[in-house]
Design a protein that fits this description.
The protein is an alpha+beta fold. The protein has 3 domains: 100 residues, 3-Layer(aba) Sandwich (Rossmann fold); 70 residues, 2-Layer Sandwich (Dna Ligase, domain 1), CATH 3.30.1490; 239 residues, ATP-grasp fold, B domain (D-amino Acid Aminotransferase, Chain A, domain 1). The chain contains 15 helices and 20 strands. It has an 8-stranded antiparallel beta sheet with strand order 13-12-9-10-11-14-19-17, with helices on both faces. Helix 4 packs antiparallel against helix 5. The structure holds ligand MV4.
Length: 458
Amino acid sequence: MFKKILIANRGEVAMRVIFACRELGIKTVAIYSEADEHSLHVRFADEDICIGPACSTDSYLNVPAVISAAEITGADAIHPGYGFLSESAYLAEVCEACHIRFIGPDPQVIRLMGDKARARRVMKKAGVPVLPGSDGPIDSEDRALKLAKEIGYPVIVKATAGGGGRGMRVVRIAAELPTAVKTARREAEAAFGLPDVYLEKYVESPRHIEFQILGDQFGNLIHLGERECSIQRRHQKLLEESPSRALTDKMRRKMGHIVIDAAKAVQYTNAGTFEFLMDPRGHFYFMEANTRLQVEHPVTEMVTGMDIVKEQIRIAAGEALSIKQSDVTFTGHSIECRINAEDPETFTPSPGVIHVFSIPGGPGVRVETLAHTDCTISPYYDSLIAKIIVHGRDRAEAIARMRRVLEMAVIEGIKTSIPLHLKILDDPDFIAGQCGTSFMERFLARPRTSGGRFAEAV
Ligand code: MV4
């Protein structure tokens, strides 16, 4: 087992990795930027080392700085968390060259999944359902027009280096395709330094459903069920839950088999997430695979009782998975709300000093946060300040529990998304579980009364 792990991240995920390491008896190293000197992850790590200025390109995204910190402190592994360098095949390769274990899949697998057109091709070959589309990047306008006609409009143009919603264009008629391809290519080039785009049939108001998997170095692979992440705004998830209301046990088993076969096909190791679109008829299509721990991993932990971060560490250290598929059980229902430091009406960031921070606990409540009374929320990083995760015997209990926690949470000094979450939890469509990815658009467009409830719900 590792003796010392360097955590190449900040915020609540750095704390999450520290929790796992402490329980496993592994020493931790925090890296931090000049803006994070007084943060919790620095306080609770066994060692800490400043790696640069506040701007993340010069600190948390700086591979030489991260590797130097690991070498100076004698860390034998790096956990990248999520965001920042978590899906950098380059960091994983440099780790290999420096004999530092990267806690994640092999660099080749990270690179493969980073190329969305290639991942699509490989998954299709492995028997995973994909939407009709191009088998690689589009190389000519004529070919694109011909293919789109075959597929049928609407189609979507996506950047091969994209993901998470960047560099996409929906096209509804042939006349719009050439311009859409040109714009998407220009955007992709600017955002990722790679102009390649591919084509796919467009699904209207799909659900976003993703499966969590774990694989060890002996070829054992298990899935931990799904998470429904359809409540998002501009590709930022706001609320996630497990299980999804849209899946039956039979569908879950079938999808589980498909996901395991897909992961086997690429010899997947460590934790991963396979994202699917579900169309209104209940058909699933592979969208992309994330080769990292995800923000919403706690909802899976709550319903399965697994500790995904500990499993990641054990797997990276060469141990076998602690359980087999038949030992995986799903109990009750879990919901996560992402609490952001932002104006709940305008969605503009709200950095500043939190004077009072108090979130109640109680049965079935888990809070993961970088915040505490008198902490400063920096404008340099993303606005996620806390994740509140609840578990209930069923969905109704989980909703009531989340509402209770949010109503009793006291965060003073900055604005947060808590009022928005409370409104979502009161929405009749949300309560009925009838919400695809177009939920937030409809939700935000609806007129509201001064009391904050929807006009039609009052
Ligand atoms: C799609 C789609 C409809 N049809 N692909 C958005 C994020 C990126 N991972 C892919 N995305 C989408 N791909 C096809 N063929 C709709 C989306 C999409 C979406 C997906 C999941 C959650 C929220 C979304 C919001 C808008 C669009």
